[in-house]
Amino acid sequence: MPSIRLTLVNNAKQTQKSAVILKVDDASDPLSDILTLAKNKLRLKKAKTLYLNHGVELADPSWLKNGKVAQDSLIYVSCGEGYVGLTRQDPPTTTGSTTPPSGTRTSQKGDEITTTTVGDTKNSALSTATELDFDSLLINSEVSATISILAKKSYVDPEANAQLNRTAMLPGMRKVVGQPDLHPGNQYPIGATFITQKFIYPALIGNDIGCGMAVYKTRLSSGIKPQKIVDKLHGLEGRWTEGDPHAFLISQLGEEHTETGKAHLDQLGTLGGGNHFAEFVTIESRIDDALCDSIGLTDSNTYLIVHSGSRKFGQTVLESSNSMQTKAEKKLLGIDAESEVGKAYLKQHDLACAWARTNRELIAHRVLTRLNAEEDATKILDIWHNNVEQKTIESIDTQRTCWIHRKGAAPSDRGLVVIPGSRGHFSYLVMPDGDQDKNGFSLAHGAGRLLPRAKALQKRPQTSKQASISALQTTDLGSSVICEDTDLLFEEQPGAYKEITDIIDDLGPFVKVVAILRPICTYKMRKESRT
After folding, report:
1. DSSP per position, 181-239
2. Which residues bind Mn(2+) 1 (predicted)?
3. pTM score, two decimals?
């Protein structure tokens, strides 16, 4: 009877290991046998899930029977927790630096750690036993995917690291970059850049296609009092009734787009929930006077930052793409960009991005109109941080183009970028600088969550409820926060986010700071007619 040597590893405490010999034949149930061995050898009475290196779940017994799992492979045994992916015993508590999984090639240059996963080839000189034969999945198994996490000061949740590792194993993946604001998502991490060839992954972008930020210079004085803004900002929820939203959409996109997102006009010009906001800021400090002068940044004006996306239009595009995919495509997770499904998704994706940009434009118009400041307002920037775009990246392939998927990652090849802190913290206007290839032509899009929303809610005091709410409505910097949803107010509290100064410090090799922005008033939502 054939057998295979394996090393079982306690996923939650990876210093605990046990070498075993597993008998494998057509009649055996190797997955069940491994779980039984783990319960006996590792004393894991609730062992239930098995992972290979990089967080690939071992759920197919045929991998053990047909040799896809090599001799002396590491099998990580979980009692229900997600794949940890760290080789040290305890997760980091103060910094974002992570240890790459075993069985990988690692190089370090400055503050950047790069982990290269190598496909198994017949002529490989490597004897690493933790590699799987993914020839049938990769375009070319000799081409590797690299994982870089650009965090030194910023904390990185182990689950975000595990999600990043799992994503790096997707077919066609060439480069994965975790930004300093990296944090776990539902399935894929947020604050990351994924570069592929041939395949595109709608799920990596998610439903808020085209989400991004715009910055406007207004004629409002920098001396304006926060309470004046608070008193004026009403009537921003629900359908825009002071004009024709469809006509506004056409004015921005052109007559050929009369049907684009028409079903979602009730939401055009609305922020939505979550971390979206409209925030008035002033210049706290001009760091690069020459750049500030070139774009007209002055200490005497107030500026508006708008963060929102494509609302339900993006969700419709994602659902439509999923419904068009074959069973094989759904199993593969990705779509061939040149297929009919791929082309259809990309067309709708681009429209959703344009719709999202128009949404930000109308939000700004509605907000500034309330303060009689819509005239003379000038847009300084508008960038997407949830999208996919095509780009030739010579370090990957001089002949074939790549697809850059940004999930909560701002582009660093489009000029100025705004990186906001949490409510009550400074934001930063930066200019990309240096070699942008290393960071995947992307930057952090904000501070990044430190606590999941559920844990942030648990921090809500049980006593003096009204006092705690008031404390979050006026920040340490003296700015006001308009948020009439109590749960959302606590979910978005400053302590739920990473330190923005750590994010900026970690991005040091890739940006130069142009100006530091001080918040005056942040609008989240009012309990008015919402859509």
Report:
1. EEE--SSS-EEEEEEESSEE-HHHH-SSTT-EEEEEEEEEETT--HHHHHHH--S-SSS
2. 276
3. 0.76
Which residues on adjacent β-strands are paired with residue 409?
444
Report the pLDDT averaged over residues 292-319. 96
- Secondary structure element (H or E) that encloses residue 367, with its range: helix 340-370
* pLDDT tens-digit map of 2-20: 788 888 989 888 888 888 8
Catalytic site includes residue 183: no
Cβ-proximal residues to 244 (8 Å cutoff; 6+ apart), any chain:
none
Q: Enumerate the known binding-site residues for GMP.
A: 275-279, 385-386, 427, 445-448
Among residues 54, 183, 425, 445, the one annotated as catalytic is 445
End-to-end CA distance of the chain: 64
Residues linked to residue 183 through DSSP beta bridges, in sequence order? 190
Is 502 in a helix, a strand, or coil?
Answer: helix
Give the residue ranges of the annotated binding site for Mn(2+).
Answer: 276, 307, 385
| pLDDT, tens digit (0-9, with 9 covering 90-100), for 246-276 | 999 999 988 888 888 888 999 999 999 999 9
